């Protein structure tokens, strides 16, 4: 399977090059960067410290989608929408790990599932998706005497908050309770906020250092707290999941899928 990477010179891009090269059944076949990137023309393998692959980094994203079987995308929302449209145009697999999408951007990507095979994951790791399922089940069992809080911490380079993973967990909790997430989400507290509203799902965000990603869901009631936690030690867990998603989608029809589908965790 020929896999390409958009944003191949970034931290995740380099990790993906390495992961694809180490995974049977697929090969690194191309990579792109924006026109302003200083890495244009460099060998994609040398940049990822795995040795030369004879593949130069280009700016031609449309050609990448035209030639690849699948393209993996951990870039930015505006770019990812454009990439999804290319996946739709050429009927290709598009694995999306980009977070911070607006509702409008998400709607555009979903529309591209008519002809493209779109796999999205707010987090590509097995552990986080298991945590999301566990969160949903626990929320369904406990009533709203248990306050739900989502705590997340990431490195100081992260640009969106709460993280896509934190929102995945919050939406899982809301689904478990059978409520509209956006109606109960409390995404920030500052100043005199008043007492906590019963039934809300709260978010707390920490940024600092080089933390890859820590997420905890707390269910807090009188005299007891239940915590479920996932800590990511290395970005390779996300790269493994993204490559697994691309391989899983090889024979799937066009449509919109997520990591729950890939991992067989869908209800």
Tell me what portion of residues adopts beta-strand conformation. 15-25%
CATH fold type of the largest domain: Rossmann fold
What is the CATH H-level superfamily of the largest domain?
A: NAD(P)-binding Rossmann-like Domain
Between the first and last Cα atoms, what is the distance in angstroms?
A: 29 Å
From the spread of the alpha carbons, the general shape counts as elongated
**Neighbour order of strands in the largest sheet:** 2-1-3-4-5-11
Q: Compute the number of structural domains.
A: 2
Give the uncertain stretches in residue-range form. Answer: none
- CATH uppermost class of the largest domain: Alpha Beta
Number of helices: 10
Number of strands: 11
Q: Helix and strand string, N-terminal first?
A: EHEHHEHEHEHEHHEEEEHEH
Q: Which architecture name of the largest domain does CATH use?
A: 3-Layer(aba) Sandwich
């Amino acid at each position: 399977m020929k896999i390409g990477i958009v944003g191949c010179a970034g931290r995740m891009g380099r990790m993906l090059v390495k992961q694809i090269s180490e995974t049977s059944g697929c090969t690194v076949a191309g990579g792109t960067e924006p026109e302003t990137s200083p890495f244009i023309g460099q060998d994609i393998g040398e940049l990822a410290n795995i040795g030369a692959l004879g593949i130069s980094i280009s700016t031609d994203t449309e050609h990448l989608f035209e030639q690849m079987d699948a393209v993996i995308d951990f870039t930015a929302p505006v770019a990812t929408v454009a990439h999804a449209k290319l996946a739709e145009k050429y009927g290709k697999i598009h694995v999306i790990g980009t977070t911070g999408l607006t509702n409008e951007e998400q709607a555009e990507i979903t529309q591209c599932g008519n002809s493209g095979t779109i796999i999205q994951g707010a987090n590509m790791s097995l552990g986080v998706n298991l945590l999301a399922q566990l969160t949903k089940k626990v929320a369904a069992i406990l009533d709203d005497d248990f306050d739900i809080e989502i705590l997340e911490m990431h490195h100081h380079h992260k640009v969106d908050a709460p993280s896509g993973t934190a929102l995945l967990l919050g939406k899982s909790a809301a689904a478990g309770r059978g409520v509209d997430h956006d109606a109960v989400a409390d995404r920030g507290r500052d100043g005199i906020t008043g007492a906590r509203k019963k039934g809300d799902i709260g978010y707390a965000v920490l940024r600092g250092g080089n933390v890859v990603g820590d997420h905890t869901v707390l269910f807090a009631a009188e005299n007891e707290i239940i915590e479920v936690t996932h800590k990511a030690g290395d970005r390779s867990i996300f790269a493994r999941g993204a490559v697994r998603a691309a391989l899983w989608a090889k024979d799937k029809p066009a449509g919109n899928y997520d990591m729950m589908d890939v991992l067989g965790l869908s209800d």
